[in-house]
């Protein structure tokens, strides 16, 4: 009987999201946005500091452009490095994705960024994100006349 209870606890805990680490919180945020449209509340619950202020000041039209990622398909997400001090971490990461139009891939992209993560009340939030490098490759010929 004790073995069954232990197994159930292990299974339940492995299925639950683990936002107890800064990497898990960042990956969850990125994964939850790719291929979807998120609402303002979703974003505001996961950010703080400079990012919170910029999203609160963003117009509804600008937020709609930011939030709509339906035409994006994730290729990979990699944590490249992490540096933590007390309740603040800087995570360098890379995201590769395809941009689709009419279910056909138009661009392949890779973006490298640094995210500043801050722990507030045992929850890791994104405080700031800086771009390091962005690489786009067109998979179709580009017609400048269109």
Structural account:
By secondary structure, this protein is α+β, with helices and mostly antiparallel strands. The chain is 33% helix and 42% strand. It has helices at 2-15, 22-33, 40-44, 49-57, 60-67, and strands at residues 72-85, 88-101, 104-120, 123-138. It has a four-stranded antiparallel β-sheet with strand order 1-2-3-4. Residues 2-18 have low confidence and may be disordered.
Summarize the helices and strands and which ones pair or pack:
Elements: H1 2-15, H2 22-33, H3 40-44, H4 49-57, H5 60-67, E1 72-85, E2 88-101, E3 104-120, E4 123-138
Antiparallel strand pairs: 1-2, 2-3, 3-4
Give me a quick take on this structure.
The protein is about 35% helix and about 40% strand.
Question: What class do helices, strands and sheet pairing give?
Answer: alpha+beta
> Low-confidence parts, pLDDT < 50 over ≥5 residues?
2-18
Oligomer: single chain
User: Order of helices and strands, N to C?
Assistant: HHHHHEEEE
Helix % is 25-40%
Beta-strand percent range: 35-45%
* Largest sheet, spatial ordering of strands: 1-2-3-4
Mean pLDDT comes to: 86
Task: Calculate Rg over CA atoms.
Answer: 18 Å
The DSSP helix count reads: 5
Distance between the termini: 69 Å
From the spread of the alpha carbons, the general shape counts as: globular
Biggest sheet architecture: 4 strands, antiparallel
Could you name the key traits of this structure?
146 residues, alpha+beta, four-stranded antiparallel beta sheet, 5 helices, 4 strands, 33% helix
């Amino acid at each position: 009987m004790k073995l069954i209870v232990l197994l159930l606890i292990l299974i339940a805990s492995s299925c639950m999201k683990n936002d107890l680490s800064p990497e898990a919180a960042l990956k969850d945020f990125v994964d939850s946005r790719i291929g979807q449209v998120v609402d303002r509340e979703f974003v505001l619950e996961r950010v703080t500091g400079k990012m919170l202020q910029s999203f609160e000041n963003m117009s509804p039209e600008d937020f709609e452009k930011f939030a709509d990622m339906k035409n994006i398909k994730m290729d990979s997400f990699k944590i490249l490095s992490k540096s933590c001090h007390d309740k603040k971490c800087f995570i360098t990461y890379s995201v590769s994705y395809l941009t689709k139009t009419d279910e056909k891939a138009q661009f392949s992209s890779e973006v490298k960024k640094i995210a500043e993560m801050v722990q507030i009340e045992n929850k890791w939030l994104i405080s700031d994100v800086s771009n390091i490098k962005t690489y786009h490759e067109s998979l179709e010929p580009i017609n400048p006349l269109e």
